[in-house]
Specification:
The protein is built from 5 helices and 5 strands. It has about 140 residues and is of the alpha+beta class. The strands form 2 sheets. Strands 3-4-5 form a 3-stranded antiparallel beta sheet, with no helix packed on it. Strands 1-2 form a two-stranded parallel sheet. Helix 1 packs antiparallel against helix 2. It starts with a helix and ends with a strand.
């Protein structure tokens, strides 16, 4: 990282939790594909932050998707809204994602998605009507 990039990350750590800026300096903490969207007119968190993260993820060989909304603010408006942007990003990811090996649903297995301090579990052995089909567990 350049001195500017490190200064940017350090300066923003005063205003934002370390977990946000740590991703730029320590991208190896990210262990799943990442989706990012950012408005270029965001006056709360400049889109340069996402560009730094994008560069760090690329350098670390991580899988990610990023979309910048030209003229979009912190909530992506007036160009778009977060809900629509999230659906578009997820739709693109789901349509182009390829699986290899065992498919959890067909095997009635569990899909586990690690998050910050919990994991999201989808237990495909349960019926769709069972409220515990999707649940959170402690890590």
């Amino acid at each position: 990282m350049t001195e500017y990039e490190l200064t940017f990350a350090s300066a923003n750590s005063v205003h934002y939790p370390k977990r946000i800026t740590a991703f730029i300096t320590e991208p190896d903490v990210i262990d799943s594909e990442t989706g990012m969207m950012h408005g270029t007119a965001d006056n709360i968190l400049p889109h340069a932050h996402t560009q730094l993260l994008e560069a760090a993820l690329r350098k670390a060989g991580k899988e990610f998707r990023v979309k910048y909304y030209e003229g979009g603010g912190h909530a992506l408006e007036p160009v778009c809204d977060r809900k629509t942007a999230t659906i578009e990003l997820a739709d693109d990811w789901l349509r182009t994602r390829r699986t290899s090996g065992v498919i959890d649903f067909e095997q009635k297995a569990k899909t586990v998605i690690p998050c910050v301090n919990k994991k999201l579990v989808v237990d495909w052995s349960k019926s769709l009507e069972d409220h515990s089909l999707v649940h959170w567990e402690e890590i």
